[in-house]
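Design job #97: recover the sequence.
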């Protein structure tokens, strides 16, 4: 299962390349998150709905999955796993964590510019 970041979607070139490489060994589900690509969205946006989406796709795929998440998709995948979504293995690619107080931080108005 591939979970894109906030500024990408299932047809993001690097994600397509990864899907193609993995498909030689695994069944790959590369979907559009809510409000991205060809996916619609139900307002108001809630992270919980995205976790439910991920669980629904995993259920359809057989009940458990290896999940790779990119950027905010990595955070979503991690939160989903912690909340009980049936993830067998988890790979987090460039999660946007702020670890140290002097780490670079996003601008205060970032939420206005990120699709929900």
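Job complete. Output follows.
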């Amino acid at each position: 299962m591939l979970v894109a970041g906030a500024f990408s979607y299932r047809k993001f070139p690097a994600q397509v390349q990864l899907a193609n490489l993995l498909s030689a060994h695994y069944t790959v589900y590369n979907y559009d998150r809510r409000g991205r690509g060809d996916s619609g969205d139900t307002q108001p946006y809630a992270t919980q709905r995205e976790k439910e989406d991920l669980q629904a796709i995993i259920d359809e795929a057989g009940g458990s999955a290896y999940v790779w998440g990119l950027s905010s998709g990595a955070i979503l995948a991690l939160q989903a796993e912690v909340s009980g979504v049936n993830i067998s293995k988890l790979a987090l690619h460039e999660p946007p964590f702020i670890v140290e107080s002097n780490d670079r931080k996003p601008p205060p108005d970032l939420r206005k510019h990120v699709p929900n």
